[in-house]
Write a structure and sequence with these properties.
This protein is mainly beta. The chain has a single domain, classed as 3-Layer(bba) Sandwich (YerB-like fold), CATH 3.50.90. Helices cover 9% and strands 29% of the residues. It is built from 5 helices and 26 strands.
């Protein structure tokens, strides 16, 4: 089922049928993570800002999951939701732009249960934000303009696999012909085609909720168990105060642990490789803060400069890094077939496990997932914001971790060739 509309203007959707097939999954071989380089990143201290809006969530201190969750607990965060009935609605997976720089600050990311950041080519990364359980408020104050999430950009091939794993629906702003045919259960939002600004496509919170209700009949009640949450960190691990991922020299991401918030704060360079500022949520005017940062190593398939796919289904075990509570853990991620998948034919979300397959607990709260290619080197580096120092210097034991991202190699071309490329 697919919809298209002009939700940035607040209109209701008009439906049309879609017979888009899903992309066949390819199994990935299991790999054991092994540090290959050492380096660290340390953004400048974050400024103090006046908070105008908090996501309405209450932490749960007793361990929950992975197979059962108390009533009203979001199985993607381990937190109590405001309205338990909303957990019956399917997740909305929204494509949110991170490039060009004018797309920042984005609106609504701090209210998403999970965010996936992936490389989309030409030095850029993009977010697929999972809105499930609690939503942003529909308006910041009584009588004010409706709250809009965005900016929303085009659909990408890996989105369909994540949609299947989370049993949700996609929201994006168009897609090229060669991508759209592989996406299913989506709603297309058009921005202002007459405007020079590429960031005009946005969805109101009211419309996003209504879309979830519309898709509920098609998708049914989500079954999103598989994660475990515990406010006590697991034993082991090593110091993990900072994480640096350079998707490009002018697209560098820092995550810095703030003990006061018990979360990692995101910052990013201003497309110059030198000037780093906090990544804010436009709704709250606060830095993005996530309790868990996961780096998963997956097989990227690179067909041309802006056309990628990623193996995410039927992965028995593949390496991952987990950052929580100021510590870093070398773990694994899995979407492999177990008893539930074999008996129901349905997927479950990405699970985080140890070498024996036991669940690794996340901290109750939100999770940001960085997807990087298999065999990407990582290690501890120095406390610096200088690219040359970060990429060449090593400092074991510093707690400043770096993941040396390099674009995946070209594998060939795919057909059909698009008639128009949508960014």
């Amino acid at each position: 089922m697919a919809f298209t509309g002009w939700l940035f203007a607040g209109c209701q959707p008009a439906a049309f049928p879609s017979s888009a097939p899903t992309v066949p999954a390819v199994s990935s071989r299991s790999e054991t993570p092994s540090p290959a380089a050492a380096w660290t990143a340390s953004p400048s201290p974050l400024p103090t800002r006046t908070l105008t809006l908090f996501p309405t969530q209450t932490p749960v201190f007793q361990p929950v999951g992975p197979t059962a969750f108390p009533s009203g607990i979001n199985p993607l965060t381990g937190l109590q939701v405001t309205d338990p009935a909303v957990l019956e609605l399917p997740p909305a997976l929204v494509s949110i732009s991170n490039s060009p720089q004018s797309a920042r600050p984005q609106s609504g990311l701090s209210f998403s249960s999970m965010v996936f950041e992936m490389y989309i080519g030409e030095g850029a990364s993009r977010f697929l934000a999972v809105f499930y359980g609690d939503y942003p408020p529909e308006a910041l104050t009584e009588g004010s303009e409706p709250v809009r999430i965005g900016p929303i950009r085009s659909g990408r091939l890996p989105y369909e696999k994540l949609r299947l794993l989370y049993k949700g629906f996609l929201v994006f702003a168009s897609a090229s012909d060669r991508v759209l045919q592989f996406l299913d259960e989506y709603y297309i939002i058009h921005g202002d085609t007459k405007a020079e600004d590429v960031n005009t496509a946005r969805v109101t919170v009211h419309d996003l909720k209504q879309l979830a209700k519309d898709f509920q009949g098609e998708l049914g009640t989500p079954r999103l168990f598989g994660l475990r949450f515990d406010s006590m960190p697991p034993p082991g691990g090593t110091e993990g105060r900072r994480l640096w991922i350079p998707f490009h020299h002018t697209n560098q991401v820092f995550w810095h642990y703030d003990p006061a918030q018990g979360a990692y704060l995101r910052s990013q360079d201003q497309s110059d490789g030198m000037t780093f500022i906090p990544s804010l949520d436009q709704l709250t005017d606060r830095p993005l803060a996530f309790e868990n940062i996961a780096v998963i190593f997956a097989d990227y398939h690179y067909y041309d400069a802006a056309y990628f796919n990623i193996d995410l289904l039927y992965i028995t075990r593949a390496p991952a890094l987990l950052f929580r509570d100021g510590k870093m853990y070398e773990i694994f991620w899995s979407t492999g077939n177990e008893t539930y998948e074999r008996s129901t034919g349905r997927f479950r979300p990405i699970r985080f496990v140890d070498r024996e397959g036991n669940p690794i607990p996340l901290h109750p709260g939100k999770t940001w997932v960085e997807i990087v290619p298999q065999h990407t080197a990582y290690g501890e580096t120095v406390d610096s914001e200088v690219y040359r120092d970060l990429i060449t210097k090593k400092q074991p034991g510093s707690g400043n971790w770096a993941v040396y991202f390099y674009p995946p190699p070209l594998e060939g071309t795919m057909t059909p060739v698009p008639t128009a490329e949508s960014e």
